């Protein structure tokens, strides 16, 4: 799957080199937020990239695909999404709404309004004749554009979940060398709690030289307690599936645990615009 994300990134780079004004990627909604986030981490383009999906089949009553595609075209042709001093960013566009790749999450299996950016909120909303801009366009992800895409495609970083009676077996196998991994993502409960077996095994993995990052299974909110040198890296408000991708990309830049921690800190949170502006 990650190799497919790499393919999209390479295609977007070629499109910019060929003079494109923007890139639209049509995508299934199950993994659209992962592909978009991966590309937001690795791309440093002057043109915007819009990932577009649909929640209804093309032959369904009120199919949303054509409308979503039109919204993406409207977005990438707006000057507000073409930045000259920083990456123009990667977005997920559905339901007349533009979301930053870092913040967006699919929250419902069937509803057209399934994609949500939580407390950060969407970047913009389109009406029939207006663009309502709620946050500054651009990338809210860490800048890992110096990564090695081909190496990222081959990284092995499993997600280990925790809960009542959770088993640390996958982590223990990685420590023993029976399971060859480049890093581990732990999906914890709440603000970062894990079963004792998972917590102990996670730290043992770090001590053995295996990078471990921790995310929450809860949709929104930061983790705690604070990071400490030599400990598991906390990925703040990133969900586990995005934390995994962050670790995969970061490992092609640095294998140092503290270096990985710094890359997470760089992309922590965003700076929303306090009041929306109506732009005609």
From TrEMBL:
Residues 8-136 form the L-asparaginase N-terminal domain. GO terms for molecular function: asparaginase activity. SUPFAM superfamilies: Glutaminase/Asparaginase. Signal peptide: none annotated. It comes from the Archaea. Residues 157-262 form the Asparaginase/glutaminase C-terminal domain. Coiled coil: none annotated. PANTHER family: 60 KDA LYSOPHOSPHOLIPASE (PTHR11707:SF28), L-ASPARAGINASE (PTHR11707). This is Asparaginase/glutaminase. It comes from Halalkalicoccus jeotgali (strain DSM 18796 / CECT 7217 / JCM 14584 / KCTC 4019 / B3). The lineage of its organism: Archaea, Methanobacteriati, Methanobacteriota, Stenosarchaea group, Halobacteria.
